[in-house]
Design a protein that fits this description.
Layout: H1 11-28, H2 36-46, H3 50-63, H4 69-85, H5 92-109, H6 114-130, H7 134-154, H8 161-173, H9 177-186, H10 193-206, H11 211-228, H12 233-250, H13 255-263
Helix pairs in contact: 2-3, 2-4, 3-4, 4-5, 4-6, 5-6, 6-7, 7-8, 7-9, 8-10, 10-11, 11-12, 12-13
């Protein structure tokens, strides 16, 4: 009966829809749309309950062994926790393992998970750079850039994509000479710090799931820029503090935000 439809005058349109349906599904899945459960876990994380958030995301990751998102944010909980403790070494092997597993899951999930693949690579690039693994950080940054480019090619409205891209541009723009040489060898280019800050501002104002993270990263970048800019130092610090005050008003118990407001007058 189904084959007989091909003989009707609507057959081309019907077949066209059948062929396009999987493609449309893949495109719709490129934009970040985490579940309400994931969003609840992120609120727990940003509220400063890092241990509780890590356990919560571990449960989600165990419940669906194909989903990369809980693993990414479980690693994120440990990263925020390490920042609160001011310890770069805190749970370093666990974070690396979680992000490696998230990358593997996202790759198995296919093109529809490119946003989360890019996010996992971005987190791992940040961690590897923090621990002095410049080559590994550069390779992961390139993977992140390429995955976000695929997402934006399919969905140009993905504002959250510009968090990773902004960090990419800013990081390369302010990298050491050696890091820039390695970046060029790998094919990363030179970056643009001003463009990176502009992208971060865009996500901080208009982002969705990445809005809090972008606001925090933007504030940190502005403080760093203030240390470089004698004339604009006061204005940049004022802007950075305003962003973190907004975060602290929403999440008053987050020790990372509270310490920033203490240290940045």
């Amino acid at each position: 009966m189904g084959l007989s439809l091909a003989q009707g005058r609507h057959a081309p349109q019907l077949l066209h829809c059948v062929v396009l349906f999987p493609v449309l599904c893949a495109l719709l899945q490129t934009a970040p749309r985490p579940s309400p459960e994931v969003r609840a876990g992120l609120d727990t994380l940003y509220a400063g309950h890092f241990e509780q958030a890590s356990q919560y995301f571990a449960q989600l990751a165990g419940r669906d062994t194909t989903d990369p998102i809980p693993l990414i944010f479980q690693a994120g909980a440990y990263i925020w926790w390490a920042s609160a403790l001011d310890s770069a070494k805190f749970e370093e092997p666990r974070i690396d393992s979680l992000l490696g597993r998230a990358i593997a899951r996202a790759r198995l999930a296919g093109p529809g998970s490119d946003f989360w693949l890019a996010t996992a690579y971005g987190y791992r690039a940040r961690e590897r750079d923090l621990h002095g693994h410049t080559w590994g950080a550069a390779r992961d940054a390139k993977q992140m850039r390429d995955a976000y480019a695929r997402v934006l090619a399919a969905d140009s409205s993905c504002v959250d994509c510009y968090l990773g891209i902004g960090v990419y541009h800013y990081g390369l723009g302010r990298a050491s000479t050696i890091a820039k040489i390695i970046a060029r060898l790998i094919g990363l280019g030179s970056g643009d710090a001003a463009q990176g800050v502009a992208y971060l501002r865009r996500v901080a104002h208009d982002g969705d799931v990445a809005k809090v993270e972008a606001t925090w990263v933007l504030a940190a970048a502005l403080v760093r820029e203030a240390d470089r800019d004698g004339e604009g130092r006061v204005a940049l610090r004022h802007e950075a503090r305003a962003y973190v005050e907004r975060l602290a008003a929403r999440y008053p118990l987050n020790p990372v935000f509270r310490r920033f407001l203490t240290e940045v007058p």
